[in-house]
Amino acid sequence: MSAVPRVAVIGGGWAGLSAAEALCGRAQVTLFEAGRQCGGRARALGGGSDFAQADNGQHILVGAYRQVLDVLARCGVREEEAFLRLPLQWHLADGLQFSARRLSAPLHLLAGVLGARGIGWGEKTALLRQMRALQSLRLAEDIPVAVWLRQQQVLHRLQQQFWQPLVWGAMNTALEQASLQRLQNVLRDGVWAERAASDFLLPKQDLGRLFAEPVCRRLQKHGAQIRLETRVPQIEQTLSGSLLVNGETFDAAVLAVAPYHVPPLLPEAAPPEIAAALDALACHAITTVYLRYPVSPELPAPITGLAEGTAQWFIDRDALGFGRGEVSAVISLSDQYGKLGREEWIKRVQQDLRRICPHLPRPTAAQVITEKRATTASRIDNPAIPTAWLRHQHIYLAGDYLHPRYPATLEAAVQSGRQAAALLLKDAGWGKAT
């Protein structure tokens, strides 16, 4: 490689932006993004929306997203301006309700569950036993969450009131396929690690202003080129060992696109097992419904859920400063409902919301956003993606689907992007990113 590597980062989502940011000042970076804006599957909607500060999906972050917060801090974003930080809350309007206490972990959760409403004392102690069993479990081989629940003889009511909403929200994967090991990792590094790690971080800005725009400003400050609306064709290899990306020569490339977009980018000589492994990954949809009412919905909690309903969680956008009377509803695994039209989604969500807030009139505005392939499924049979050949060719993959421990989350995307940058710099002889 040259003294200062010339690097192409293909994909302007959170993984690509994080990789490019980690390369700032250490490489000549050109970022290629096929869309009109950066942000990938976590971005602002842009023009044409009835909701000025809406995203392509309602995202909830947690205090354990340490590398997300680190990137934002490096880009000059102050947490208190970007997020509303709330202690862990679990508020199902039709069942289990508890809040973490301001105690050190794990006492914050223990005290919260013991003080829970909506379930009896026997169910509280059973839930704590199940959490303790999962925390101490050492898995020789990964199993589906549903299998473990059966082994623990978890009653249907606790599955419905806690475990299913947790797995759907954290992993966007059905219980029968969801990886118990990854769920365990999420809880160990978050809820069980320290109280602050379990906090909710609710964005007070759209994700463009919150993440993509500050990172892009930092990239441009360090001389990076950002090329929007540029769809990159197949990468070519030269006899000298460099890479041709969109007709330009680079020393290395980071492919930070969705897994189903990677195979067309791979050089002709790439081993076929790479594309085969990527093609074997399954994806699931998430639907977000935004509603605006002429009166405040007055949700009982900033994040209010339903154990029995189409929508799993409602977020009070009033509390985030997005405008009076606004609510967003999240439906994980929304592909399980088939191909519902816009009006049917709105009807179902409004019916759910009226069970919580019966006084609500008809909404004055509504928007439905479905990301058909929002996340890769966190299944026990997810294939390992072979990367050795790519790395030897100075090509590095980045994306939430690659994380060895976590499901496909924003934190996983950021960690993956930074890891790709660190490997690239190491191979280039420049050490790890700073």
Q: Percent range for helical residues? A: 25-40%
Structural class, judged by helices and strands?
alpha+beta
Q: Please, how many helices?
A: 13
What is the mean predicted local confidence, pLDDT? Answer: 95
Topology of this structure?
Layout: E1 6-10, H1 14-23, E2 28-32, E3 61-62, H2 66-74, H3 79-82, E4 83-86, E5 89-91, E6 97-99, H4 107-114, H5 121-136, H6 145-151, H7 156-171, H8 180-189, E7 200-203, H9 207-221, E8 225-227, E9 236-237, E10 243-245, E11 248-250, E12 252-255, H10 272-279, E13 283-292, E14 303-305, E15 313-316, E16 326-332, H11 342-356, E17 365-376, H12 388-392, E18 395-397, H13 410-427
Parallel strand pairs: 1-2, 1-12, 2-8, 12-18
Antiparallel strand pairs: 3-7, 4-7, 5-6, 9-10, 10-11, 13-16, 13-17, 14-15, 15-16
Helix pairs in contact: 1-9, 1-13, 2-13
